[in-house]
Structures are given as C-alpha cells and as structure tokens.
Amino acid sequence: MTENTLNILENVKIAVANNGGHLAAVDAGALSVLYRLSILIDVKFDTGDTADLSQLIARHVGLMDALLLTPKSRNVGSSPVVQEVDHGKEFSESYLRLVSAPVAVKARQRSKPRTTSGATGGKPEPAVDGVAKARNGSGTGNRSRRKVD
Predict the structure, then answer these.
(1) Which residues pair with 128 in a beta bridge?
(2) DSSP structure class, residue 87
(3) Inter-residue contact 30 to 67 (CB < 8 Å)
(4) Which of 43, 46, 61, 129 is the most exposed place for a label (fewest CB within 10 A)?
(5) Among the listed ranges 101-105, 106-110, 132-136, which one has the minimum average pLDDT value?
C-alpha cells in the first residue's frame, strides 16, 4: 500500500472531488471541519496515540454521512426496495364490496305492549277496595267490574 492510500485526508479530498457535486457554499464550514478531523486522525494514527481515536472516527464518519460522501448515505450497493404496483386493484375491490353490500334495513317501531286480553294499554282501571284489578265472580280475570255494595 502506498502512503496516499493510508492517508485519510487525501481520500476525503478524492471523495469530495468525485462525489461532492451536490455540495454548495453553505457546506463549506462542514467541509473544513471534515478536513480538520481528517488531519487530526492522520496525526493520531501516525503518532500511535489511539486514546480518542474511536470518538474522532465516529464524528468523522457521521460528518461524511451528513455530507452524503459515504456509500451508505448514498445507498450505493444496497438493492432498492421494489414496491408492488397494484394498479388500483385494492380500490376497485373496496368499491365493489361497498356497492354489492345489502341495503340496510330500517328498524321497525316497537309496538305498544299488550295486556292478556289483547288491549294496548291505555288508562289503568281504578283500584277497587285496594285491589288493582277487580275480578268478576268467576275469578277469570275478566276486565268487567263488579259492583261493590
């Protein structure tokens, strides 16, 4: 390997030259920080000082991703997700299901409750001698009132 292939700053410059067409003047600050981090990482590698190296590399990679200078951030090498086109099939099935639905039946009105004789309620008969319903002499529960003397 040559010296340039191990140099992070030179490789970052190559990446910016080849894939940095989307970068604008507003990205100048981020690029200068990226170059400074690259120099610092190169110096740390060259001197063998690896104390803060993992944190610096994490920041460097994060900045490269933010600037779309890594294959991961550009989605290079990953297969694109193929979305299935249904051409309105789901919509047409929903529409047909709604059209062929049975007509809703209106609720019927509840009829008035009926008594045992078939009458539909009305005014209750007055109580006779404290009894709610006066019975005739046969005890059949007929609604005719008997005379009380």
Answers:
(1) 131
(2) T
(3) yes
(4) 129
(5) 132-136
